[in-house]
Design goal:
Layout: E1 17-19, E2 22-24, E3 28-34, E4 39-46, H1 49-67, H2 71-87, H3 89-100, H4 104-121, E5 129-133, E6 137-145, E7 148-152, H5 158-171, E8 175-179, H6 186-195, E9 204-206, H7 211-219, E10 225-229, H8 232-243, E11 248-252, E12 257-261, H9 267-279, E13 289-295, H10 299-312, H11 331-347, E14 350-353, E15 368-371, H12 378-381, E16 388-394, H13 397-405, E17 412-416, H14 420-427, E18 434-437, E19 456-457, H15 462-467, E20 470-478
Parallel strand pairs: 7-8, 7-10, 8-9, 10-11, 12-13, 12-17, 13-16, 15-16, 17-18
Antiparallel strand pairs: 1-2, 3-4, 5-6, 6-20, 11-19, 14-15
Length: about 475
């Protein structure tokens, strides 16, 4: 990796990969930066190509034994794993805050929600489906595990996303090699330490590394499926790389989610909800609100109300209990946002609040609300993935729907109105994977999640997501006698 550790850094903890049931380090390492201070606080082992090969071989060797276990046996181990995560909530939360930046209370929520997935996902029944049954034949559709799953997770909610992939892949009988983001690898590596005490060797392998490790995984001939969550640009590279071996892929990619606000809502009541859904995790959520389209009759009042919400909150170090929001996670994303804000200023759009960078250490961007912005502006066309929100005006609902859909993204969207029937009608016309009325965020292991257009391929979670980790197989029984 390009970044190297300062020689003066003193390491308090040791971090290791999980490979074939054993914890091991690497000859090389890279620094993990605390985004609240811009300083390295830990070294992370950097997995070699040989270590990846070793992990894949172990996963392949463990596959038959794991796949032959019953759903109940696999579920019991996964629930034990979830319980172990709960027991280590405090230490995992602090580590997550230090590497990701989010406030400690939000980190604890992430750990708890991640742990809950192991219980909820393993209570979904996967049964054969009867296609035909008559005097001459009985036909069923069965689902069997694919083999070795390679999972690659991002830095915004690393423990939740790693846990969702682990639970789905292992419950359905696959084994796994998982790579967390190099910006937030440590809390996921800690999951590996807990997993080593619960799962048979080779069933779950967790290796940290940079982009090169991800490329090795997507190209590896003995990995059968790639489950990737991240940017659209990287997702396209993953798909192209995986195509050489016809790997199955699930891609949960970025979004540029629109919220359409109709004229019948109370701006003061809806503003806090819109603000929370846009600025959660400092705007670093793929399915957060990225654009708000407001009917002209309440445009100025609602924009001002959202700006007032932004002025109330405190952005600060995640370990400071008074912080409502943390910094942007990494320097690359920080510099992208600074460039976007400069583009906003040059375009002539109006910034109601924010638009500046605090004079302090850390990747902080003051919450920024923008109005009078053109549809072709970068802040509208691109996914900002940070605490910067454009608010746009529309005259009639048909115009609002058209502009909301005028994007290459299609992750999710929302409609805000007191007329629920009208809200449902408009929501159904949004070209997205998930459309909501009077809310925007809210994922559940019971509900399929994924994107339309360039926001992804396939679905995670629910019975739909679980089947994406399996191969459908037709079992056709001919009842005619062969005597």
């Amino acid at each position: 990796m390009a970044i190297r550790l300062e020689e003066s850094l003193e390491i308090e903890e040791n971090f290791t990969h999980l490979i074939d049931g054993k914890l091991e380090g690497s000859e090389s390492s890279f620094p993990v930066i605390n985004p609240s201070t811009e300083s390295a606080f830990a070294k992370c082992p950097d997995a070699s190509k040989e270590q990846l090969d070793k992990a894949v071989i172990a996963a392949r060797a463990a596959f038959n034994g794991w796949a032959n276990r019953s759903y109940n046996e696999r579920a019991e181990m996964l629930r034990r794993f979830g319980g172990a995560i709960v027991e280590h909530t405090e230490s995992l939360s602090e580590l997550l805050t230090r590497e990701q930046g989010k406030p400690l209370v939000q980190a604890k929520s992430e750990i708890q929600r991640a742990a809950a997935q192991y219980d909820r996902i393993t209570r979904i029944e996967i049964c054969p489906e009867v296609i035909a049954d008559d005097d001459s034949q009985h036909i069923e559709l069965h689902y069997r595990p694919l083999g070795v799953v390679g999972a690659i997770t991002p830095w915004n909610v690393p423990v939740i996303l790693a846990s969702g992939k682990i639970a789905q892949a292992l419950y359905t009988g696959n084994t796994m090699v998982l790579k967390p983001s190099p910006y937030t690898p440590l809390s996921t590596l800690r999951l590996g330490e807990l997993a080593a005490k619960i799962f048979p060797a080779g069933v779950l392998n967790i290796l940290a590394g940079g982009d090169e490790l991800g490329i090795w995984m997507t190209e590896h001939p003995d990995i059968d499926k790639i489950s990737f969550t991240g940017s659209v640009a990287t997702g396209k590279k993953v798909m192209a790389s995986a195509a050489s071996g016809l790997k199955r892929v699930t891609l949960e990619l970025g979004g540029n989610d629109a919220a359409i606000v109709l004229e019948d809502v109370d701006p003061k009541k809806v503003a806090p909800k819109l603000f929370a859904a846009a600025f959660v995790n400092s705007g670093q959520i793929c399915a957060a609100i990225k654009r708000v389209y407001v009917h002209e009759s309440l445009y100025e009042e609602l924009a001002d109300a959202i700006a007032e919400e932004a002025k109330k909150v405190k952005f600060g170090d995640g370990l400071d209990p008074s912080s409502d929001y943390g910094p942007v996670n990494n320097k690359m994303q920080f510099e992208k946002l600074v460039d976007l804000i400069e583009d906003i200023k040059q375009s002539g759009a109006k910034i109601l609040t924010g638009g500046d960078v605090p004079d302090r250490a850390g990747y902080y961007i003051n919450p920024t609300v923008v109005v009078d912005v053109d549809d072709d502006a970068r802040i509208v066309k691109e996914e900002q993935f940070g605490p910067v929100l454009p608010i746009l005006k529309f005259s009639d609902v048909e115009e609002g729907i058209r502009r909301a859909n005028d994007t290459r993204f299609g992750l999710s969207g929302s409609v805000w109105t007191n007329d629920l029937a009208k809200g449902e009608e408009i929501a159904a016309r949004l070209q997205v994977g998930t459309a909501r009325v009077n809310q925007h965020l809210g994922m559940s292991p019971d509900i399929p999640f994924g994107g339309a257009k360039e926001s992804g391929l396939g679905r995670e979670y629910s019975i739909v997501g679980l089947k994406g980790y399996m191969e459908p197989e037709v079992v056709h029984i001919n009842k005619d006698s062969i005597e």
